[in-house]
Design goal:
Blueprint: E1 2-7, H1 15-29, E2 33-41, E3 54-60, E4 70-71, E5 81-82, H2 88-109, E6 113-117, H3 121-129, E7 135-138, H4 142-149, H5 154-162, E8 166-169, H6 172-182, E9 189-191, E10 213-217, H7 226-238, E11 245-249, H8 256-267, E12 273-277, H9 281-290, E13 293-296, H10 305-312, E14 316-320, H11 325-332, E15 338-341, E16 346-347, E17 351-352, H12 357-373, H13 386-397
Parallel strand pairs: 1-2, 1-6, 2-3, 4-5, 6-7, 7-8, 8-9, 10-11, 10-13, 11-12, 13-14, 14-15
Antiparallel strand pairs: 16-17
Helix pairs in contact: 1-13, 2-3, 3-5, 7-12
Keywords: Glycosyltransferase, Transferase
Protein name: Glycosyl transferase
GO biological process, one term: lipopolysaccharide biosynthetic process
Length: 401
């Protein structure tokens, strides 16, 4: 098959970017011909796209698009433009640029199917300009969050999504949300989940773990729960149960004041705290293998790929009990050594109520202490592969395979 993959974002640095690149890698390994349309800032490298795939970039920070690439989250690990800040002229420039590039990619590849990421503006452009070719799109939850928070492009996006040949969700709870946002039959939405690369993310008995160590992977920002994680570590220190170290891998959020506050809080802890920045997959796998417990105290997630990678590398995990995540993990990895933390009430999709944060942070501290005391696990995660995810996505498109 010839498969065109489309995302408005960079093909790296975020969960959806990793998802796209992983599917392309599986497409190529299966003998398919693949191409990628993606948004990048002018001058950005394209080395995150697997070798062998043709790339059709839409370049931002140019005369045509004189602003940074748009981010599906309001806080991105790289400079980005918030969709809510697009003026009508900026939105139309976005649509023109993606329309032209998608047409060029279709003419060059002659795809049998188009796989889009996010039920949002770029996907609506694809549906408008691609005719006679199945188009399927995967939600990553951030698209639904954008649609609930503001009205940009809604009149274009909703009918386009309803006209797709296939709509994919990461887990069962997301199916209901997609059905609600777009007024479509839940039965028309296919759950495809996430996968991981077992060639990269696997245990290594020869690598000793650092007992009592914590690892966070994700955007270093409030929405990912980083301030609450630091507060939980402070609580453990006061109880004499502080971790041996805390390492945080990932890009910083774009709000400078928030970043400064996080750094200042970290510097006030007695626990050694290290900010590692964004890591390549091999370096990230090495961090997973060295850590005792992986922690992701987010207030909003689709389906956290980083949690699957951590578990595959032999980590224990502490995760916020967000909708859909626990049932999906229970079905795919029933023996996963995960401890769950009940989240605080959130408003505007991902903003926790301040009065509930102390109790959340106390619960988080308790589960971190319990996880660090748990024995080292033995888990086989190989049932979760990107090849299986790709098969489900292509099946949802209805394209002949």
């Amino acid at each position: 098959m010839r498969i065109l993959n489309v995302s408005a974002q960079k093909p790296d640095s975020t969960g959806s970017g990793t998802y796209l690149s992983a599917l392309v890698r599986s497409e190529l390994a299966a003998g398919h011909e693949a191409a990628v349309v993606c948004g990048i800032d002018d001058g950005d490298p394209l080395d995150a796209v697997p070798a062998g795939a043709a790339v059709y970039p839409v370049r931002f920070c140019t005369g045509e698009l004189p602003f940074h690439v748009c981010g599906m989250s309001d806080v991105m690990p790289y400079p980005a433009t918030r969709y809510r800040d697009l003026t009508p002229a900026m939105e139309e420039a976005f649509v023109r640029a993606f329309s032209r590039t998608v047409r060029r990619a279709v003419a060059g590849l002659r795809p049998d199917v188009v796989v889009c990421h996010h039920l949002y503006l770029a996907t609506s452009v694809v549906r408008e300009v691609v005719d006679g070719i199945p188009v399927v799109a995967v939600s990553h939850s951030t698209d639904l969050r954008q649609l609930r928070q503001h009205g940009l492009g809604r009149d274009r996006i909703v009918p386009a999504v309803r006209a797709l040949d296939g709509v994919c969700a990461l887990h069962d709870a997301q199916v209901e949300e997609i059905a609600d946002v777009f007024s479509i039959d839940p039965g028309a939405v296919t759950v495809v989940g996430v996968g991981y690369d077992p060639q990269v993310f696997h245990p290594d008995p020869a690598v000793p773990r650092d007992p009592g160590s914590l690892l966070f992977v994700g955007k270093v920002c409030r929405a990912k729960g980083v301030p609450s994680l630091l507060a939980a570590v402070s609580c453990l220190e006061r109880e004499g149960r502080g971790p041996s170290r805390l390492r945080l891998a990932g890009g910083w959020g774009s709000a400078q004041a928030e970043c400064d506050a996080i750094r200042a809080t970290a510097e006030g802890l007695s626990t050694p705290v290290e900010f590692l920045g964004r890591l390549d997959p091999a370096s990230l796998a090495a961090e997973y293998r060295a850590a005792d417990t992986f922690v992701l105290p987010s207030f909003f997630e689709g389906l956290p790929l980083v949690a699957v990678e951590a578990l595959a590398c032999g980590c224990k995990a502490v995760l916020t009990d967000l909708p859909g995540v626990r049932p999906w993990l229970a079905a795919g990895l029933p023996d996963a050594p995960v401890r769950w933390v009940a989240p605080p009430t959130v408003t505007d999709v991902d903003k926790p109520r301040p009065d509930e944060l102390p109790a959340f942070e106390a619960r988080l501290a308790g589960q971190l202490a319990a996880s660090l005391a748990d024995p080292e696990p033995s888990l086989d995660a190989t049932a979760l592969s990107w090849d299986a995810v790709l098969d489900r996505v292509l099946a949802a498109s209805g394209a002949a395979m």
